[in-house]
Amino acid sequence: MGWFDRLKKGIRTSTSAKMEAPDGIWVKCKKCKALLTKDELEKNLYVCPKCDYHLPVGSKEYEKILFTGDVEELFNDLESYDFLEFTDLKSYADRLTKAREKTGLKDAITVYAGRVHKMPLVAAIMDFRFIGGSMGSVVGEKIARAIDYCIEYNVPLLIISKSGGARMMESAFSLMQMAKTAAKLSQLARARIPYLSYMTDPTTGGVSASYAMLGDINMAEPGALIGFAGPRVIKDTIKKELPEGFQSAEYLMEHGFLDMIVHRSEMRKTIRDLLLYFANPGFTKNENGNGSAKGALSAKNGKLHASEKNGNGKNSTLSKSVNARQR
Ligand SMILES: [Zn+2]
């Protein structure tokens, strides 16, 4: 028998009388389960102050974290439509409508032109909430137009990736975006304009297999999942246990696929430093030069030559100066 017996049955407290915090004030950290307030999280750029887990954020949040001052959205008249009349569990047309209502976005990527501490930059930022950040023909076209814009105005490009891969509802048209974006990036390289790639959690499938991994500098957020096929698919295919931390940003960094891992709180500063550096590649000859550009170089720890894998020769000055410094 318990200490207290309920004498009357059916006692209920009405929902309106319950003393609870209003919905949406608290957010639970997925990793350490700490309860955090939304304000606290926003101030900390949506990074858990207890365990440093980078909570997923949308394109609008990255725009605010990255740019200083006014930004202009480019090519926002482009919208996907269901040209194949594709239906899986739902029709693609329905998925598009729902995604637009849910996110207020036109598609899974938004292109912004603005400045990072006076340095001009065009940033194409993906949003996972829009059909898993999938790459359809509009995503590819927006990247292509962003590259044309960068060439016309001689402005560096940054792409922040967050994607499950190609948008299967657009079938082969989504796969074609891999070749299209890669070809456009080689035009950008020929124009000797830097392209920085920042991969966030997750960057997978056709996105990792095209523009995300083609940066002159490939960066990632701590702990981000980056890979082509997911770990479960690979495990089932090769019938072997995968190494610990497989496909994490840290694992990729250790195996030479990334140039650096950049904490969200350091993103703006790192990108500013890289933009300064690329704007003045002869800088390393002057040891008494600008300290911030120097910081970018030391953060690279002499690994800038890794970006030569693009084979575009665009970094030759940079690589030579870094190699000279190492010798
Ligand atoms: Zn946490």
Essential attributes:
327 residues; alpha/beta; 2-enoyl-CoA Hydratase, Chain A, domain 1; two-stranded antiparallel sheet; binds zinc ion
Q: What would your notes on this structure say?
A:
The protein has a 7-stranded mixed β-sheet, with helices on both faces. With 327 residues, the chain is α/β, with parallel strands linked by helices. The chain contains 11 helices and 9 strands. The protein starts with 25 loop residues before the first strand and ends with a helix. Helix 4 (137-153) packs parallel to helix 5 (171-190) and helix 9 (267-279) packs across helix 10 (291-300). It has a domain at 57-267: 2-enoyl-CoA Hydratase, Chain A, domain 1. Mean pLDDT is 86; it is low at 284-327.
The rounded Rg comes to 23 Å
Q: Which superfamily, in CATH terms, is the homologous superfamily of one domain?
A: 2-enoyl-CoA Hydratase, Chain A, domain 1
Q: Report the biggest beta sheet as strand number plus sense, adding barrel if it closes.
A: 7 strands, mixed
Gross morphology is: globular
Q: Give the helix level as a range of percent.
A: 25-40%
Number of helices: 11
- Beta-strand segment tally: 9
Low-confidence stretches: 284-327
Strand content: 5-15%
User: Any idea of the CATH class of one domain?
Assistant: Alpha Beta
